[in-house]
Amino acid sequence: MPPQVAAAYRYCEAVTGQQARNFAYGIRLLPTAKRQAMSALYAFSRRVDDIGDGALDADAKKLRLEDTRALLARIRDGEIPVDDTDPVAVALSHAAKAFPIPLGGLDELIDGVLMDVRGATYETWDELKEYCRCVAGAIGRLSLGVFGTVPGARDAARAPEYADTLGLALQLTNILRDVREDADNGRTYLPAEDLEKFGCSGGFHSATVPPGADFTGLVHFEVRRARALFAEGYRLLPMLDRRSGACVAAMAGIYHRLLDRISAEPEAVLRGRVSLPGREKAYVAVRGLSGLDARQVSRQGTRRSA
Known about the structure:
This protein is mainly α. The protein is 71% helix and 0% strand.
């Protein structure tokens, strides 16, 4: 590996370690080449997200996102030299040559962030699902390009579908966790029809539930939806090699436990960001590395087909 590429990967790994603790817990279980490629994917994705969440006005954000899309096209076409001054572009370009990464997923991510910039809201779950597919399902499919599937894996043709669904589960969990923060930033992601059903159309701008709102009912309704997505997405695990499966199980497991905490105390998300302690994340990582989650999914699949 040229020293410029090695340095670019180190930069991406530093970004990942500083900015994405849950993600970093998972990818540290991967062998070096896959860990580096995942760090490059994260660093590029983080750049896109930071544009959408930044302080620029909407028109400036749109221009910056289209510039990033043009950079992605150069990466896709192999036009990034190893001595380019952009370490993220150098690392992602190298990763895309080493692994069959479907870089179009990053175009989808840009499309999703553009929805945020335009202030999109979602009337139904089907509408929100399309947004989640752009900003999270696409990341699942991109990651699968790095992980690959084991030879002879049963039903492997559906692996991208399961990776996409697992991304949706993680994103819906994020939406529930950040409902107060998003409201303070003028964003509402939960479907309008769900908010109306539970008397929550007024929004979430304080640490207490608005009078007459069934916030607990709303959260439990969305938690059930997220758990169904997790159950479907977990079917990816037996298709992955041990360390890739451990990575996915760790990342998904952290969010699944986070979902359990939100379900147990829904109003906590109105008071601040709900998170897991480090020791619990470490336990989830060890459980993933043991292969326990993948074996459990395999047994469930065997029972379904029996």
